[in-house]
Amino acid sequence: MTNEELKKTLWDAANKLRGSVSAAEYKYPVLGLVFLKYVSDLFDAHAEVIRQRLADPASDIYIEDKATRKEAEASFVTDKTFYDQDNVFWVPADAHFGELLKQGTNTELPQLLDAAMGEIEAENPTLKGVLYREFSRLALGPGKLNDLMVVIARLKFDPKQHASRDIFGEVYEYFLGQFALNEGAKAGEFYTPKSVVNLLVEILAPFKGKIYDPACGSGGMFVQSAKFKDAHQKTLGKKGDLAVYGQELMAATRRLCLMNLAVHGLDGDLGQTYGSTFTNDQHKTLRADYILANPPFNISDWDGDKLKEDPRWVYGIPPAGNANFAWLQHMLARLSSRGRAGIVLANGSLSSQQSGEGEIRRNMIQADVVECMITMPGQLFSNTVVPACLWFLSNNKKAGPNGSVDRSKQILFIDGRKAASGRVSRTQVEFTDADLERIALTYHRWRGTEFSDGKPYEDTIAFCHSASLEEVHKHGYLLTPGRYVGSEQTDESQDSFSARMDLLTEELAELLAKGAELDDQLRNSLGALGYAV
Fold it and tell me: pTM to 2 decimals?
């Protein structure tokens, strides 16, 4: 199938459940069945590889006599050892997608699927507690589940035609993206647009060390980091190695992440359980070399009132009504001495003054842990209209392992509000590869890293500016890049009006989104008290 045919097949599969299962839930059975088809196809493909090895004189299991070889095939292709040693998931015979598809008219099909998922988990330790096993709880009409399996059966994961891990990753990412578009804000709990993830990865350039995401969602940061590492091993002439650490608040989303790691061949430590990074931190002793995160924007129910004495608040106690500066300080507390972090936050964090946030931001700047600030277009996210920015923090801005140029007492500002030239839909844009290269190369030139092209960094009007901390002090410790990079407008009054208008527009969008969030909270509270809303 072409990519477009593949995507249409996938969405046809998802739509088999729409209307029968709530939008918030139907992604789990669909992804579960796609995964079952994936592991079954790879299992069959590896069985064929074993047969070919038996007939290959150069193989370590070659059997010359055809009759003996034929007899050996049956036992070899059902020997779990041959699958384990090649990192292929073992699929018991009665748990195979093809066998279950034959049971399509069986009224016990949901129970058979649950049992099959349980068997696969039991045989593959990396999948323990990961797979979807609630088919029997789905309120589906007769034949719905069989119809879904018939559509998914059209998918073919063939390692001879393509790298199967990569194609499943593409399938997985496509599903998550489509669900995000259809579910709106709820999907923001687990999905970050791929181009935003790629921008974080291209700037932080994770290659060797510990990588951490305290709000890991479905694991996109980890997968793209591993792809970056793999892509640069040859160009750098050395081996990269990343140890994955994460935490996720939602149990179902944590399982999505574990599945994502498993199908990409990644081992990850997501702690012992799901839970709040603030009140049930699973990695208190971790010191990471890279942190990449897109924590939920502006959350007010993070139990901040119970954590006022927390040792993570080095730069000031974050307000109980907004976790933005709690996230920033948590990540600083988990960085190694050479560690760097890239965090997606709402633009309000750049200039907010309420509840002590301005003081925390000033203290962080004076401590010289803020390295780079990037504003992004307002149409990047499918699930929020709140304009977002990227904070890059660093524990070591001197010349050394993080770059050959000493950038102590300096901050790089990049105005990327007009830097996304790609378009996902009429209402959503994305960074193209060229956009990503331009922004990332600006950073790497500024820092003098091994990922630079060797050219010196230069300020560019209306795009980037390297500011001293004295300059930031003159701007009242506000970190909005538009204040520093200047404007292409030649008329000073027009320039001033345009910059101010941009700021006011961003503030208005954020206030509207916050108002909608408070309205939802009020409705939920009234509903819980028995009032009709």
Answer: 0.82
Q: How far apart are CA 468 and CA 137, in angstroms?
A: 59
Phi, psi of 495 (to 5 degrees): -60, -50
Q: Which residues pair with 400 in a beta bridge?
A: 403
pLDDT per residue as tens digits for the range 379-390: 887 666 678 899
Residues near 203 by beta carbon (within 8 Å), at least 6 away in sequence: 342, 372, 390, 392, 439, 440, 443, 444
Using a pLDDT cut of 70, give the percent of the chain over it: 83
Q: What is the pLDDT of residue 204?
A: 97
Mean pLDDT of the 182-193 span: 61
Judge contact between 16 and 151, C-beta under 8 A.
Answer: yes
What is the number of other CB atoms lying within 10 angstroms of the CB of residue 94?
12
Long-range contact set of residues 503-510: C-beta below 8 Å, sequence gap at least 24: 503/351, 506/347, 506/378, 506/387, 507/348, 509/378, 509/385, 509/386, 509/387, 510/298, 510/346, 510/347, 510/348, 510/386, 510/387
Domains annotated on the chain, with CATH:
3-162 (1.20.1260.30), 174-482 (3.40.50.150)
- pLDDT bracket for residue 193 (50, 70, 90): confident
Q: Which residue has the tokens 């040859």?
A: 234
Q: What residues form DSSP beta bridges with 467?
A: 411
Tokens at 234, concatenated: 């040859």
Write down the pLDDT at residue 322.
94
Strand 410-415 relative to strand 464-468, pairing? antiparallel
In sequence order, what are the residues at sequence separation of 6 or more whose Cβ sits closer than 8 angstroms to the Cβ of residue 394? Answer: 339, 340, 341, 369, 371, 402
Q: What is the pLDDT of residues 255-307, one digit of tens each?
A: 888 988 887 888 899 999 999 999 999 999 999 999 999 998 889 889 999 99
Neighbouring residues of 400: CB distance < 8 A, sequence distance ≥ 6 = 338
